[in-house]
Q: What sequence folds into this?
């Protein structure tokens, strides 16, 4: 016999969320809004991990999780969605498994893809909120443009070393990402592989992003709509800068003076090295729907040693070379001399 | 840069944004200047500069005219995650 008898909720859900249902800011009506919400988290790394854990355990009913990467040992220091047993697995798959263990009452939709200018709209379409867990500006710009076009709020977040910043973009109401941090070449900014990152700053920024996301779902004005918060862990300081919309912004302005700058084609990128090796990432715009069974057979034929056979991808090694192919066709090749060698190996593996 | 300058908020007298940056650079030593400007004398792109909340790139850049009470904010552009 139902103990709580709340329409639309199992007793187990009411018990699960009991510590937030009693909050004035959420309540039962808010919990219902969370359950009906669809949120897309893009990037399941240092920010994405705590964001997904919190949104999942707060009861966001549908979580679309997007990432192109596989779990590596150096992730575990701060990406607590994953454990040692998940090394080599596609992050979206590992995330979905972890979330199902954390909260069986929600849906997770894994998308093992890169965000590109060609697919950003498709990736975020139908979502109520998009939450930023990316680590580069170019895909953020693609995401920003898609969210502005589709009128989807976007909760920007970023962190490196001991500092981080976050802002909430509400299309047509607040500045967009390219109003306040546009025109940056990713080659000019440090990566955490080189500069490092403290897990605490990731959790602080991620927590603020989750709070903003929940406020949006509740129908409340986000605290950082039209403002950027900058946090420095070294002296635990928080600086809030009010931002203003720019009418001439080529992405969201009411009077744009130019077209948005074409974004770099990121179908082939060299990303920060791992273990001193060069790493190349191939990112198709569309889901190539790779038949992993056939792929695995081809890899074995080519004398690659398969280290992980997962539902959303395969990881493999051969001598100094390591790689992975996701079901979407995203391919990572590391330990080769240059992009042409990486391209040849990919063509051979995928028979394209 | 706060750690180099030793302060987060300063009062500067200037008519143009470029003068504000020059004053800051002159007052806080060579290390601050190198962090702020590239070899061409332009502010480094990884430093966001806002005048009353607007990115200076959308205004008149270093020639942006300032008025009494205007707030110029310099924030590192953070991108990692």
A:
């Amino acid at each position: 016999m139902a103990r709580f008898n709340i329409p639309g909720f199992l007793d187990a859900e009411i018990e699960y969320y009991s510590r937030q249902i009693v909050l004035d800011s959420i309540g039962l009506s808010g919990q219902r809004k969370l359950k009906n919400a669809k949120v897309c988290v893009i990037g399941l790394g240092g920010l994405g991990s705590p964001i997904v854990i919190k949104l999942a355990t707060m009861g966001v009913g549908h979580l679309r999780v997007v990432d192109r990467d596989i779990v590596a040992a150096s992730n575990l220091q701060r990406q607590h969605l994953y454990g040692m047993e998940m090394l080599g697995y596609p992050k979206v798959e590992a995330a979905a498994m972890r979330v199902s263990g954390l909260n069986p009452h929600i849906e997770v939709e894994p998308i093992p893809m890169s965000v590109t200018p060609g697919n950003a709209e498709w990736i975020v379409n139908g979502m109520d909120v998009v939450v930023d867990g990316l680590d580069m500006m170019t895909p953020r710009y693609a995401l920003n443009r898609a969210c502005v076009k589709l009128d989807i709020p976007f909760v920007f977040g970023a962190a490196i070393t001991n500092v981080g910043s976050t802002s909430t973009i509400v299309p047509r109401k607040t500045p967009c990402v390219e109003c306040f941090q546009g025109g940056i070449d990713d080659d000019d900014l440090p990566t955490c592989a080189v500069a490092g990152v403290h897990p605490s700053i990731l959790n602080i920024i991620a927590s603020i992003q989750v709070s903003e996301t929940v406020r949006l779902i509740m129908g409340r004005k986000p605290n950082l709509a039209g403002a950027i918060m900058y946090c420095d862990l070294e002296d635990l300081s928080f600086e809030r800068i009010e931002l203003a919309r720019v009418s001439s912004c080529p992405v969201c302005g009411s009077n744009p003076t130019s077209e948005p700058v074409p974004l770099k084609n990121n179908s082939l990128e060299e990303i920060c090295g791992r273990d001193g090796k060069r790493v190349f990432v191939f990112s198709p715009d569309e889901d190539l729907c790779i038949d992993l069974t056939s792929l695995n057979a081809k890899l074995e034929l080519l004398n690659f040693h398969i280290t992980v056979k997962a539902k959303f991808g395969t990881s493999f090694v051969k001598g100094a070379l390591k790689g992975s192919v996701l079901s979407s066709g995203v391919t990572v090749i590391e330990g080769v001399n240059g992009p042409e060698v990486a391209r040849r190996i990919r063509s051979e593996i995928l028979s394209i | 840069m706060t750690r180099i300058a030793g302060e987060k908020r300063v009062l500067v007298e200037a008519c143009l944004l470029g003068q504000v940056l020059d004053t800051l650079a002159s007052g806080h030593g060579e290390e601050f200047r190198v962090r702020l400007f590239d070899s061409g004398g332009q502010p480094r792109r990884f430093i966001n500069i806002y005048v009353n909340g607007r990115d200076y790139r959308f205004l008149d850049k270093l020639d942006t005219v300032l008025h009494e009470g205007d707030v110029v904010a310099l924030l590192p552009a953070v991108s990692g995650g």
